[in-house]
Amino acid sequence: MPHSLFLKDIQTRTNELLIKWLPNEQQTPTRLHQAMRYSALNPGKRIRPALVFATGEMLSANTEVLERAAVAVELIHAYSLIHDDLPCMDDDDLRRGIPTCHIKFDEATAVLAGDALQTLAFEVLSAPYVAELSDYKQLQMLRSLCHASGSLGMGGGQAIDLFMTNKASDLATLESMHRMKTGALISASVKLGFLASDCEDQVIATQLDMYSQSLGLAFQIKDDILDIESDTETLGKPQGSDINKNKLTFPALLGLDGAKKRATELVERALDALERIPLNSEKLSDFAQFIVNRHH
Amino acid sequence: MPHSLFLKDIQTRTNELLIKWLPNEQQTPTRLHQAMRYSALNPGKRIRPALVFATGEMLSANTEVLERAAVAVELIHAYSLIHDDLPCMDDDDLRRGIPTCHIKFDEATAVLAGDALQTLAFEVLSAPYVAELSDYKQLQMLRSLCHASGSLGMGGGQAIDLFMTNKASDLATLESMHRMKTGALISASVKLGFLASDCEDQVIATQLDMYSQSLGLAFQIKDDILDIESDTETLGKPQGSDINKNKLTFPALLGLDGAKKRATELVERALDALERIPLNSEKLSDFAQFIVNRHH
Predict the structure, then answer these.
(1) Distance (Å) from the C-alpha of residue A263 to the closest C-alpha of chain B?
(2) Does residue B82 belong to the interface with chain A, where contact is any CB pair within 8 Å?
(3) How far apart are CA B228 and CA A286, in angstroms?
(4) What interface predicted TM-score (ipTM) does this complex get?
(5) What three-state secondary structure class fits B74?
(6) How many angstroms separate the most distant Cα atoms in chain A?
C-alpha cells in the first residue's frame, strides 16, 4: 500500500475509534462533551496513531490493543493542543484551519475539555480488553503513556518552551526541549506499538527507540521549516507565527539550509535503526521519508 | 485515637508521601516543578486521603497500597483546585490562606502544573508495587480514579457548575452537579480504600458506597453553610464568595436552617450505612460527624 493510502486509512480508522470512545454530545455536560469532540475530531494528520499501527502491525500485535493505544495517544495529543492554544499560552485562534477550542467555545470550557481528554486517555488504556492482553502488559502501556505525558515529558517540554521565548539559547537546549515536548509522545507511540505485541526482543526495542527519537526531532525541525516555507492555507495556521512570537527555532539557530541538513541526517539515522530490525519495516521507513517531505 | 489526632496524623503522612512522589524542585523544568509542589503541598485538610486510610485500615489493607491511593486522589484534587482558581474559571486569588498558583506563578504555569499533577496521579497508581497487589486490582483502582475524575465525574461537575451560575435551577440539579464535582472523588477515595484490601464482600462495598455518597453531599452543603457563617481568616478564602459570584448554593435554595437540616439528614444516612458493616467503622463515623461540625 502506498504511504499516502496508509495514512489516509489511519485517519479514517482513528476518527471512527475516537467517535466511539469520546462521550456522546447529548450526554450531560453537553457543552463540555461538544468541546471534547470538536477538538479531538478536528481532522489532524494522526501521526501518532499511524506510528502505533505501523510499529504494532510489523510485530503482529492484536488489533484491539493497537486501536486502544492509538486512541489514547491521540487523546493526549488533542488535550495538549487545546491547552497550548489558550490565551495564557501560545494564544492561537486557528488550529488545522478552524477556530481553536477556546475561540469556538470559551476559555473555561477549553481548560476543562483538555483536562477531561487527558483523563479519558488513561481511562481508555485502563479499561478491560476483549483481547488477551496480560494485566501486566496493560500496566506497562499505562506507565509508558504517563511517563511520556507528564512533567518530565510532553508537559515539561511545553513549560520549558514557554520560558525559552525571547531568551538566548543553544542547539542542545532547543533539542532537549523538543525531545520532551514533541519527541516523548512520538516515542511513546512507537513504544506502545511494541508493548501491544508479544515481542520481547530487546534489540528490536532499542532500535525502535533510536528510530522514534530521531524521527521526533526531525518532525519538529520540519515543522519549523514549514513555518517559514509554507503558506497559511496549507498549514491551517498562520505562516510565520514562530518568528512573530519570537520563538527560538532550528532555522534561527542553524539557518534554513542547516536545519534541512539536520532533518535529513536524523531521518537517515532513523532509517539506519530500522535496517537493524530483521522484519519488514517498510511502513516505518516510508513514515520517516514522509516526515521530511510533507508540505504541512 | 481521637478524630482530631487521626486527621492530624493523616495530614503529616500525606505531606510526607506527596514530598516523596512530587518531582524535585531542582529538576528541569524547575518552575513547573516548583508550582506543582507549591500547590500540592499547601496544607489542606487532606479529607480524601483520610477517607482512603480510614476505609482501608478498617479492611486491613496493605499500607503501601493505601499510601499510593491517598497520594493519587490528593494529586487529582490539587490539580482540580489549580484549574478551578484560574481567571477564566472561578478567578480566585486566595486558597487556604495563601496566593493561588496562577497568582504566585503565572497562568500558563498554573495550567501546566494542574495538567502535570493529573498525569502524576495516574503515574503513581500505575507504578510497580513492592506489596503484593494483583495487576488486576491495580487496574481496577486506576479505572475507579479515571472514572471519578473525568467528564462524567469531577471534571464534568465543574463544567456544569460553570454554566449554572446565575441561572434558575432546582435542588435536584444542584445535588446532581455536586455529586459529580465533589462527590465523585470523595466516593472514589472510599472505593480505593476498599479495592486496596482483600475484601470482596459486595454488601460492604454497597454500604460504603452509600456512606460516601451521603458524606460527599453533606460535605458540600457544609461548605456552602461555612461560606455564610464563617469568616475569611478561618476559611483561608474570602467569606461570602459564593454569594458575590452569584453561585447557586444549598442555603439559597433551602434557607440556612433547611440546608443544616439536609446536611444532618445526610450524615445520619451515612451513619446508618456504616451500621450495616460488621466491622469497627469508628474512624469513618467520626469522619461523618467531623464533616458537619467543622469550622473551615
Answers:
(1) 26
(2) no
(3) 65
(4) 0.95
(5) helix
(6) 52
A40 interfacial to chain B (CB closer than 8 Å): no
Q: What gap in Å lies between CA A118 and CA A78, rounded to an integer?
A: 8
Q: Which has the closest alpha carbon to B74: B134, B10, B129, B126?
A: B10
Residues belonging to chain A: 296
A119, B149 contact by CB (below 8 A):
yes
Which residues in chain A have their CB less than 8 angstroms from residue B33's CB?
151
**Which chain A residues have a beta carbon less than 8 Å from that of B108?**
86, 88-89, 162
* Contact yes or no for B159 and A32 at CB 8 A: yes
Decide if B83 touches A, using CB distance below 8 A.
yes
Cβ contacts (< 8 Å) between A159 and chain B: which residues? Answer: 29, 31-32, 109, 112
CB-CB under 8 Å, A36 with B159: no
Q: Which residue blocks in chain A are alpha helix, DSSP H?
A: 3-21, 30-41, 47-58, 63-85, 101-104, 107-126, 135-149, 154-164, 171-178, 184-195, 202-229, 232-235, 241-244, 250-275, 282-293
Q: Is the pLDDT assigned to residue B233 strictly greater than 70? A: no
**Across the interface, which of B107, B118, B134 has its CB nearest the CB of A115?**
B118
- B207-219 pLDDT per residue, tens: 999 999 999 999 9
- Domain architecture of chain A: domains with CATH: 3-293 (1.10.600.10)
Nearest CA in chain A to B25: A151
Nearest by CB to A118, from B23, B119, B134: name it: B119
Say if A31 is an interface residue toward chain B (CB within 8 Å): yes
Taking residue B57's Cβ as centre, other Cβ atoms within 10 Å add up to 18
Among B122, B124, B169, most A C-beta atoms within 10 A, so best to mutate, is B122
Collect contacts of A100-106 with beta carbons under 8 A, ≥24 apart: A101/A35, A101/A38, A101/A39, A104/A35, A104/A38, A105/A31, A105/A34, A105/A35, A105/A38, A106/B88
Our CA-based measurement puts residue B240 at a distance from the nearest CA of chain A, in whole angstroms, of: 23
Q: What is the DSSP string of A49-117?
A: HHHHHHHHHHTT--HHHHHHHHHHHHHHHHHHHHHHHSTTTT--SEETTEE-HHHHS-HHHHHHHHHHH
Cell of A172: 542542545
Each of the 296 residues of chain A gets a pLDDT tens digit; together they read 677 889 999 999 999 999 999 999 999 999 999 999 999 999 899 999 999 999 999 999 999 999 999 999 999 999 999 999 999 999 999 988 899 999 999 999 999 999 999 999 999 999 999 888 999 999 999 999 999 999 999 999 999 998 886 566 788 889 999 999 999 999 999 999 999 999 999 999 999 999 999 999 999 999 999 988 877 666 666 666 666 677 889 998 999 999 999 999 999 999 999 999 999 999 999 999 998 888 77
Question: Which of A115, A118, A124, A180 should be substituted to probe chain B, the one whose Cβ sees the most B Cβ atoms within 10 Å?
Answer: A115
Whole-structure pTM value = 0.96
Which pLDDT does position B164 carry in this prediction? 81
